[in-house]
Write a structure and sequence with these properties.
The complex is a heterodimer of chains A (about 260) and B (about 130). With about 260 residues, chain A is of the alpha/beta class. Chain A is about 45% helix and about 10% strand. The longest helix of chain A has 17 residues. Classes of the chains: A alpha/beta (about 260), B mainly alpha (about 130). Chains A and B meet through helix 9, helix 10 and helix 11 of A and helix 1, helix 5, helix 6 and helix 8 of B.
């Protein structure tokens, strides 16, 4: 099965692991990601103001590409996913906004939110199925106590993201269990790491990140997985003393397709 | 400077939020991960916009502390979406000539070898017009 793939800015440099292992794992599971040609950065955070148009155009172009290809649009970075899904929702529900966008883009046939957007985790759950993932595991992670860190962007706003229960999510724990690991559940897994506040107030980011790390460790975690380069940066930068890795790296390891490491 | 009522209408229109729905339970501020950093908290943004007291918000550093994590949006029992109010007030502030909270000159001070582009892109999206 083919999917259109939007990698995003950080996956091409600081978060190569997130990208490379997503590709290798998808192929091992029978999915062929086709990278969108000339994709543009999503902007990192969705602007909720209804009169903001230009900041959402890059996402509309990616959505239009997937819609024209009749393929699902898959993203792996939490931020890209959030921005693109929220933009798609705005195109579906805000006529004034979609009219402005369509007049500006002058795209053939226009675009009104037809594309289906999947986060890579949703793709694993809904298009591949965790049972199939489990069957393909060659290096079981049995005995490893791993905590999933969702952060904010994967789950919220729930009305738009519709990915999982925003207060009691299970998709990453279900993945961990499919790979044979023990999923460590802890309270702060869906609280914000501090995001871009590390530019403005590094101490505030440190406080948030430390609370998450301490909570995960107290629950017995030996490792944390994330889907977001900024979450990983904030956790590592603020003194994580257990490994923080991208979920795709763990997946590739379990599927036996990790191969050569990236140069960074 | 616009009269407060004009500004209030503009912020309500931009955000799409009905501030009158707020029942002042304070759950948005209780769940806000940036609460300690803020002079005005999410519930105050909603309440002050509702009564047109917007000038103090426009000049407050609190505008730049919101993380856009949507915790207040999802946890509000009345569906008010305080983060959208904060965003509309912040845009009102930084859309003014020369009012950007961050500029390209700030980047060399922030940039380290491990800085993810996502960090800079997100900060620029929130702090700059």
């Amino acid at each position: 099965m083919k999917v259109r793939y939007f990698p995003g800015c950080t996956l091409k440099n600081r978060a190569k692991d997130l990208d490379t292992y997503a590709y290798r794992s998808a192929e091992a599971l029978g999915i062929t990601p086709e990278e969108i040609e000339n994709w543009q950065c999503c902007g990192g955070v969705f602007t909720t103001a209804r009169d903001e148009v230009a900041t959402k155009l890059a996402s509309v172009r990616a959505l239009k590409d997937a819609s024209d290809s009749n393929l699902p649009l898959v993203t792996v970075c939490s931020a890209c996913h959030n921005v693109i899904k929220q933009t798609n929702h705005a195109m579906q529900t805000n006529k004034e906004f979609s009219d402005k966008v369509n007049r500006y883009l002058e795209a053939d046939g226009g675009y009104n939110g037809e594309a289906e957007v999947y986060h890579y985790l949703e793709m694993l759950r809904d298009l591949v199925g965790f049972e199939k993932v489990k069957e393909r595991v060659v290096n079981s992670l049995k005995g490893k106590k791993i905590a999933a860190y969702y952060g904010c962007l994967l789950l919220r706003p729930h009305k738009v993201m519709r990915m999982d229960d925003p207060e009691n999510p299970t998709v990453m724990e279900d993945l961990l269990r499919a790979l044979g690991a023990d999923a460590v559940v802890y309270a702060r897994r869906n609280e914000c790491c501090g995001g871009y506040i590390s530019v403005e107030s590094p101490d505030a980011a440190k406080k948030n990140a430390n609370a998450i790390l301490e909570n995960a460790k107290a629950a017995g975690a030996e490792m944390i997985i994330t889907a977001c380069p900024l979450c990983k940066y904030n956790l590592v930068k603020n003194g994580a003393d257990i490994p923080v890795v991208y979920f795709t790296e763990l997946l590739a390891e379990a599927l036996g397709v990790k191969g050569e490491p990236n140069e960074t | 400077m616009k009269h407060n009522n004009d500004l209030r209408e503009e912020i309500l229109r931009m955000s799409g939020v009905d501030t009158a729905k707020c029942m002042k339970c304070g759950k948005c501020s209780a769940t806000c991960p940036a609460y300690d950093e803020m002079e005005y908290h999410p519930h105050q943004f909603v309440g002050m916009v509702e009564i047109g007291e917007i000038e103090p918000l426009l000049s407050s550093e609190s505008l730049y502390k919101c993380l856009s994590c949507f915790a207040c949006v999802d946890r509000c029992p009345r569906g008010v979406a305080p983060a959208k109010v904060v965003e509309a007030v912040r845009l009102t502030a930084i859309r003014r000539q020369g009012a950007n909270h961050m500029t390209a000159n700030d980047v060399p001070l922030i940039l380290e070898t491990d800085t993810p582009p996502q960090l800079l892109v997100s900060a620029f999206r929130k702090y700059t017009k």
